[in-house]
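Q: What would this complex look like in 3D?
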Amino acid sequence: MTVRILSDLLLEMRGICKSFPGVRALDEVYFNVLRNEIVGLVGENGAGKTTLMRILCGIHRPDQGEIVLEGKKVSFKNPRDARGHGISMVFQEQSILPNLTVAENLFLGYEGFFSQRGIFSKRKILAKAKEILEEFGLTFDPDVPVHRLSFAERQMLEIARNIWSAQASSVRTPILILDEPTTFLEEKEIELFFAKLKEIRERASIVYISHRLSEVVSLCDRIYVLKDGKNAGVFDRAEASEELLRSRMVGRKFEGEYYLTDMQGRPRDEVLLEVRNCTKRGKFYNVSFQVAKGEVVSICGAVGSGKEEVCQMLFGLLKPDEGDILVEGRKVIINSPEEAVALGIGFIPEDRRSEGLVLNLPVVENVTLPILEGLRKGAFVDSQKQMEIAEKMIHRLNIKTPSPRTPCANLSGGNQQKVVLSKWLVSRVKVLVMLHPTRGIDVGAKQEIYRLIRDLSKQGIGMIILGDSFEEDIGLAHKILVMKDGRVQAVLDATESKPTPADVLQYVV
Amino acid sequence: MSASPKTKKATFLPFIQENSSALALVGLTVLFGGANPRFFTLSNLFNILDLVSLLMITGSAMSFVLMTGSIDLSVEGVVGLSGVIASFLVKNLSNSNDFGYFALVVCLGVGLLFGLLNGAIFSKLRIPSFMTTLGIGYITNGIGVLLTKGNPVVISDWGFRQLGVGRIGFVPNTFIIGSLLLVIMWFVHERTFFGRYILAIGGDEAIARDLGIKVERIKVGVFGLAGALYGIVGALLTAKLGSGDITAPRGFTFDSIAASVLGGVAITGGIGSVPKALIGALILTILRNGMILMGISPYVQQGVIGAILIFTVALTLDRAKIPVLK
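A: Here is my prediction, written as C-alpha cells for the whole assembly.
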C-alpha cells in the first residue's frame, strides 16, 4: 500500500448532525475520503451510514456541519447538484433506464458533449459508448436495450456512466458511493466486481457500504465504523479484521455463540407439512421431506438448484407436475398464496420492502393486516383491539419503533423484517417459509431474528429457511436438505451435532 | 460484466413479440384482401390513405404523450376549435375574411397554445394529465360552440380546400402532409435528445430528473408539440369537409390512443416510436375499412375495435413492471 499524504485529501465531512422526527440519525460525524482509495463504511442498521451518504450525495441536507471538497466548502441542493461535483451514489435499485439502450443510458443528461443543437449522430454516440465501455472492460453491445443485461452488467454500466460523466464535466477524481453493491451478485460475479473496483480506484474514489464485513476487510483501504449515529473508529486495512469491526459496530466483543445454538429446542413428533415425491419438470425432481412441529428445515444449494422453486411451490406460486403436499396429514392442492395462507402456511419473501409490507402504512396496520376480518366490530374495525395486538407484537418481538403509528418506511431493515414476521404470528401460522430472512440486515438485528426463530420453534411453528450462508443454515436448522440441479443430494441432521460448512459443501458442488 | 451471450442471441420468439404489430398489419391486409377483391382496388387503397392521414398525425402526437407516461384527452376539443378558427379565417359564408393558407399557421399556433397550456397546468400545477387535458378539451370545445353557435361554418376557399381533398397522382394531399409531419416527428424522436428524454421520462421520471434532465420542460414541450399537430389536423379537417364544425372530430381522441396502443406504444410510458404509431393508425384504418367492405354493421365494428384494443393491451402490458394498476 502506498503511503498517503495529507494533500491526497479529497473530501472532508466535518461535524455532521442530522435529525429526523424522533431520531437523532447523525451526531457530530466526521468522514474523509482520500484521492483514489476505497473507503469502507460499516455499522449496524440505523447506525447512520445511509443517512451520511444521502447527505453527501445531496438527497438530505445536514442540520449542522460542513462538507469540504477539494479544499472548498460545498453544499448540495439535490442529487443533480452533487453529481455536478462528481459525487454520485449507486443504489441497489439502480438508476438506469431499462427501456433505453446502453449508449443512451451512458449519455443521458450529458448529451451536451455531442451537440449544441440537440440533434445527434447515432453512429458517433455508439462509437463513443463503445470506447467508454472498453475503458471499463465491459464487453456488451452499446446498442442493446438495457433490460436485456444482467443485474451485474447494469450495475457496472451505472458505475461507468457515473465516472465517465463526472470526468467529462472535468472533475478530477469522482466519488462513487456504492450501497450494498454485492447483495444481488453471484459468487463469481463478486470476484469480477472487486477486480473492476480496484481498476476504477485508479481514476476515482469509492465509498463502499456493506454488511459483509469479510468483503469490506479484503477490499477497502480504510474503514469507518459508525454506531448509533456516531463515529466508532477508523481503521487502516492493515489493522482491520472482521472481529474488530464487528466488536466496534455492536460496541462489545463479539461472542462465539453467534447462532444461539444453545437455545435450539427439539422438534416434536407431530408432522406439520410433508412434501412427497414432488417434481416440477425443469426445476426440481422427486423432492421429499417433512417438517415437524417446531422443526427448522434449511434448504441449501447453489442458485439454480431448485430450492427457491420448492419454496414457491409451498406458497402456491408454482404447481408441481407430480407428487403430493400434505398439511397435517391431509393431502392439499395449493393453487395460490391465498390458499396457502388459509392452510396455515406463511411466506416471508426475499424482497420485504416490496412484497412483505405496505411501507407507507403504520406498524399497527401492517401487523394486523392479515386478521382485519377478525377484528370487525359491526362495519368498522375495532381499533382498540387492533392497537392492543400491535403493542403486544411490538413488545414480544422487540420492534424498535417510535410508536405503533409510525409508518413502516421509517423503520430500519431489521425492524421491518420483524413487522413482517409479526404479521404471520398474529394470523396463527403453522409453517413459515422464509427466503433469506436476514438479508440486508446488520449483525445485531440478525441475532434478534435468530432469537425469534428459536422462539417460534419452541412455540411449535415449523419453518423452512433459505439462509444467507451455509453457516446460517447450519446454525439455525434441525435438518438440512442439500439440493443440486433440482434433486435432493443429502439430508443432514443438525439437531444433535452440527455439520461443518464443508460437510454441506461437498453435496452442493 | 463479462461478455454476455444472451444479449446477442436473437431468437424467434422475441422477433415475433417485437414486430407483432407489423405482423398483425400484414395479416389483416392479407385477410381482408383475400376476403374481398375490392380491398386491393386502387380506389380503395386511395380511400385508406385518405382515411389514415389525419389519424397518423394525431396518433403520433398521442404516442409522444403516452411515451412520457401521460395521456392527452383534449384531441377532439383542440382539433375542433382549430378547425372552426380555420373556417373563420379563410373565405367563408359567415364573414368576409380571406387569409387563405395563412389559416394553417394560425391553427398551428392555436393548437400549440392549448398544448402548452396542457403541459404547463399538468407539470407546473401538478394536476394529473388526464384531468388537465379533459378540462382543456371541454374548454376548447366550449369556445368552438360559442364561436359557431353550434352551426358548421361553410368555407368557399377552393384553394384551401385542395389541402384536404386534392391529390397528386393517386396520393391524397393530406397523406403527403401527414407523411412529412411523421418524418419530422420520427427525426425528433430518434435523433434529438428531446426525443430520447421523452423515453427516459416515461421509463423513470425520478432517474431522469436526477440526471439533470429538465423533466417539466420536456413535458410542456411534448404537449405543445402534440397541440401544434392537432391544430394542423383541425385546419386539414376543415379543408377536407368544407366546413368548420366543432363536432367533426368526434372519436379522434379514442382513435389516437387506440392507434398508438395497437402499434405497440406502451400506455404506461417509456416504450414506443413514430413507426409504431403509424402502424397502429394503419391497423385501425384497415380494420374499419375491411369490416365495411365485409358488410359488418357499424355498431358491431365499434365493439370489435374496443375488444381488440383491450386484447392488445392485455397481451402487451408488462404487468411485472407495474406494482398496482389504477
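A: To summarize the key features: Residues 215-241 of chain B form the longest helix (27 residues). Chain B has one domain: 31-315.
Q: Very helpful, thank you.
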